[in-house]
Design a protein that fits this description.
Radius of gyration: 18 Å
CATH superfamily: Ribonuclease Z/Hydroxyacylglutathione hydrolase-like
CATH class: Alpha Beta
Strand content: 15-25%
CATH architecture: 4-Layer Sandwich
Structural class: alpha/beta
Bound molecules: zinc ion
Distance between the termini: 5 Å
Strand order of the largest sheet: 6-5-4-3-2-1-14
Length: 281
């Protein structure tokens, strides 16, 4: 698998000189499976540049788009994903059960409310809702994909990709907490992430910030790191950086995570997700 971050920011895009290192675009992850099939997770603002890149490589774009949930920061880039306007593009959609509704609403509500100048039904690309993940795991090429519910307002899905003995877990917008909100306990997430080669998890807050934001649906870096340690993952990336966070502050959170890991004598490579960076698995 080849994995590239196109958007690492949470809540709202924050372009500017304070976000040039870790990136200002909201969630979008590109995964190229070993057979070449391309899977995109989320259509945050990062998907705009991904669409342009794909069209520059090939004029017949064919992708899967898996949507974690339909909060604006995860769907708002979809009308700017240029392949949706190309008749020879194919976009297969799956993910959280409301994903199709969320993507459609970025264009129109069928009431002519004027949210966007183009109607969803006028898009030229071949767009299909597969509707598989809400019933159970799915397979693309030889990669098994399954999901776990998120502890997040209105819910969502985290995804696990297993291919040729390698495992990637992507969980964003998830509040790790001990009281099993929405029926999921940290041990359920640890089980889901157990032994993953790479875990990418939401760590929008510091532990102090999270004290005042219970129920907002995001984790702090200490809780996310603890999940990575308990699940004995091979590598941990934190993402969904808070929009108020400057590059220097994300760097200092990264340093704190590495210090905690050192204190725990944990041999765990840790990084903050960087927009534009690529991982090979
Ligand atoms: Zn989000
Ligand atoms: Zn959300």
């Amino acid at each position: 698998m080849k994995i590239r971050f196109w958007g690492t920011r949470g809540s709202i895009a924050v372009p500017g000189k304070e976000t040039t290192v870790f990136g200002g675009n909201t969630t979008c992850l590109e995964i190229v499976l070993s057979g070449g099939t391309r899977v995109i997770i989320d259509a945050g603002t990062g998907i705009r540049a991904l669409g342009d890149y794909l069209l520059s490589e090939c004029n017949k774009v064919s992708v899967y788009l898996l949507v974690t949930h339909i909060h604006w920061d995860h769907v708002l880039g979809f009308p700017f994903f240029a392949p949706v306007y190309c008749s020879n593009s194919k976009i297969l959609i799956d993910g959280f059960p409301s994903c199709m509704k969320g993507l459609r609403v970025t264009f129109d509500t069928r009431m002519g409310d004027g949210f966007f100048p183009v109607k969803f039904d006028d898009l030229k690309s071949d767009i299909h809702y597969l509707e598989k993940l809400k019933y159970g795991p799915m397979t693309i090429e030889n990669t098994a994909i399954d999901c776990i519910p998120l502890q997040h307002p209105q819910g969502g899905f985290g995804f696990r990709f297993r291919e040729k003995g390698k495992t990637l877990v992507f969980i964003t917008d998830n509040e790790l907490r001990n009281d099993s909100w929405e029926g999921r306990h940290p041990r359920d997430y640890a089980e889901f992430c157990r032994g993953a080669d790479i875990l990418i998890h939401d760590a929008q807050y510091t532990p102090v910030e999270r004290e005042k934001r219970h129920g907002w649906g995001h984790s702090d870096y200490a809780a996310a790191l603890s999940l990575a340690a308990n699940a004995r993952v091979g590598r941990f990336y934190f993402t969904h950086h808070d929009p108020t966070r400057r590059d220097t502050e994300v760097s200092s959170i990264l340093a704190k995570c590495r210090d905690i890991a050192k204190e725990m004598d944990l041999k765990l490579p840790i990084d903050a997700a960087v927009e534009g960076s690529e991982l090979i698995l």
